[in-house]
Amino acid sequence: MTRSDAVRLLAIRDTPLSVDEVFAAVGDDAAGGTALFVGTVRDHDGHAEGAAVTALAYSAHPSAEAELRRVAERVTADFPVRALAAVHRVGDLKVGDLAVVVAVSCPHRAEAFAACHRLIDDLKREVPIWKHQAFADGSQEWVGA
């Protein structure tokens, strides 16, 4: 298996995400550990001192999928990844909706945790996806722009 074969699923979608799809994508008989992270839309925002969120939308730059692939391939190069998957939602979301699901399987649990942590952190920091939030007080904010 080559490192690029380890990247099994990458997508930016305007449709609901599936934890089951992402988990299934990283199944591998040689993996002893699988780490999965699910990011959901919450009813408040920590950056705005707990302000109540009334609406949220994600937008992505046209290069976002290519940048997601670059991040994923770097994670597979830096960790003994057997399989990796990452899916991010765009469009209008509501409280409780899944915004991002990432998973990594590795030979051992510590590696899987570390690789998954790096994957979500690098995705949030480097992939050009922006969040627009509207708050109950009428204010709005862009995050990541």
Structure, described:
There is one protein chain. With 145 residues, the chain is α+β, with helices and mostly antiparallel strands. It has a single domain, classed as Aldehyde Oxidoreductase, domain 3 (Alpha-Beta Complex). It has 4 helices and 9 strands; from the N terminus they run H-E-H-E-E-E-H-E-E-E-H-E-E. Helix 3 (64-78) runs antiparallel to helix 4. The longest helix has 18 residues, at 109-126. It is elongated, with a radius of gyration of 16 Å. The N and C termini lie far apart (37 Å). The model has no long low-confidence stretch (mean pLDDT 93).
Query: CATH H level: which superfamily?
Result: Molybdopterin biosynthesis MoaE subunit
Silhouette = elongated
What top-tier CATH class fits best?
Alpha Beta
Biggest β-sheet, characterized?
Answer: 5 strands, antiparallel
Q: What value does the Rg take, in angstroms? A: 16 Å
Put simply, the count of helices is 4
Count of all domains: 1
- Low-confidence parts lasting 5 or more residues at pLDDT below 50? none
Q: Can you name the CATH architecture?
A: Alpha-Beta Complex
Class by alpha and beta content: alpha+beta
Give the SSE string. Answer: HEHEEEHEEEHEE
| Gap between N and C termini | 37 Å
Q: Write the CATH fold name.
A: Aldehyde Oxidoreductase, domain 3
- Oligomeric composition of the shown chains: single chain
